[in-house]
């Protein structure tokens, strides 16, 4: 069957793996792909075996250089729907037009680890979104923290070299618990604020679905009437912000290194589509580019939400996993300078360096300047850029003219006059002497680190102390530990005293900033139960016990797409006391507590072979220790008691029937954890 021809390039549209027969890359049929061409049954393989050579050649060249940073990632397709209320600050159609839907591709990632590292390491997470807008591609290339380690891009190679595995042994992989990283942090006090974020619970998110995202930098927005504003981007997860606890994250790295990407794709498959609201902090575009005394060009500073609220302008919904990980997740190419009319960059020195770096790295990774032609990167608008040739050129250009002005082709393509759909740089004054400057406002390195610390609840502060103590405890050099303690002494006296005590070192003196007001928005602990879409409840059952809670819980939580999994001692079918059966989703051998947001013990498990299995005690004790809801139905209380779980502790529910525990369990899931119980285990 003939295929449609592309009217522009006069070549067939590019599709992969078509037809039902095996062919060579040139389209010739292949009769046998299991045996090489040889001279006789036991003779040598012949060089003329073109299928062997082509197949091996393609295999040998399947890999492209992995990203220097953000190598470990997961991508998803989705759509962004604008509320339309952003028209007062930007003329960007995808934000300003009510109910405008824009196709997006989002890539989540860790920063330091290789492609083969684990998902749940303590690290910054990338949150990069490619908007295929009607006016061109807009890339919002952000992180799950609103600040960064450095103020100037010239130091970016340094911080990454410091954080990456040390070069002599290539150890540790995907971790910052080593000397070079903390030597950098202690030597560059501007990094203190970001280090506070990294050592908080936000450094080990529960899932990508429960993670905030930030544009980090300040952008300049232009409305249709020409007025401008300074803006910061925020992604607010519909499920709230939720993290793992440290022991849980460590267990997850071994039990399921792919935990975050599996959670992401499983939730989509279950119909619990991840969602975020895009919000803007909108500030006046003043000459000094500050707001309430905060330098908006300093990427190590936030603007507290209490003094500049985040205004929601649209909803992002992720609905589809990639068909091919390499073609989409690996080949997607983001660039901070991919902007559209209505959104422009600022003079943030870290942002300015990224404008060069992102384009430069794509040239190496993707083999040349034509990476925008790859399907995942291709703009959804007409492109007539007059560019020619280069590695991996996929289009067949027609005509002989590739310059302007011209008379041969009626001076086409035409430029877009201002006022149409053209991107026109906003004229902003630039003056000053050439030099390597450091603004005075950039010298405050501790007030916002203190702001972050004071905004945390006691249990979150305890986790922060434990993280600093663990990471610095892995360092071998005493001067490195002392350098970081010197910085912490300028953040908070209690913080540095607790970390120093854990390290067995003296407490240094420091000058703590005065007058710092906490920002409650920085705490992850919710004030009330939130949504529970895609949460996972494990139900521990036994042959001959009551299996009805499995179906009852599935029915009760069906509208919220809560996943209920059956845990048994064996695979296959489990038979209940009333003759009913359930298929085991997990066995005690193949599961760990980290898979579940709550654990339910069905009636009849106590006294069974399940109760005698040592892994049962491990499962329940871990769930209890990590602050997860634990529900005991009927005689399940006896099992909790026998395994050393305090049945009177917060978040432990004893119920006679599922009906009694449906709402209390739902509320407990919506709070993420029992924070009161977690404080029992925090140092």
TrEMBL record:
This is Catalase. SMART domains: Catalase (SM01060). Signal peptide: none annotated. Gene3D superfamilies: 1.20.1370.20, 3.40.50.880, Catalase core domain. It comes from the Bacteria. It catalyses: 2 H2O2 = O2 + 2 H2O. Its EC number is 1.11.1.6. The lineage of its organism: Bacteria, Bacillati, Actinomycetota, Actinomycetes, Micrococcales. Residues 1-21 have a biased composition (Basic and acidic residues). It is an enzyme of class 1 (oxidoreductase). CDD domains: GATase1_catalase. Belongs to the catalase family. HPII subfamily. Pfam families: Catalase, Catalase-rel, Catalase_C. It comes from Promicromonospora umidemergens. Residues 23-412 form the Catalase core domain. Residues 1-44 are annotated as: Disordered. Its cofactor is heme. The keyword Metal-binding applies. Keywords: Heme, Hydrogen peroxide, Iron, Metal-binding, Oxidoreductase, Peroxidase. Decomposes hydrogen peroxide into water and oxygen; serves to protect cells from the toxic effects of hydrogen peroxide. InterPro entries: Catalase (IPR018028), Catalase_AS (IPR024708), Catalase_clade2 (IPR024712), Catalase_clade2_helical (IPR043156), Catalase_core (IPR011614), Catalase_haem_BS (IPR002226), Catalase_immune_responsive (IPR010582), Catalase_large_C (IPR041399).
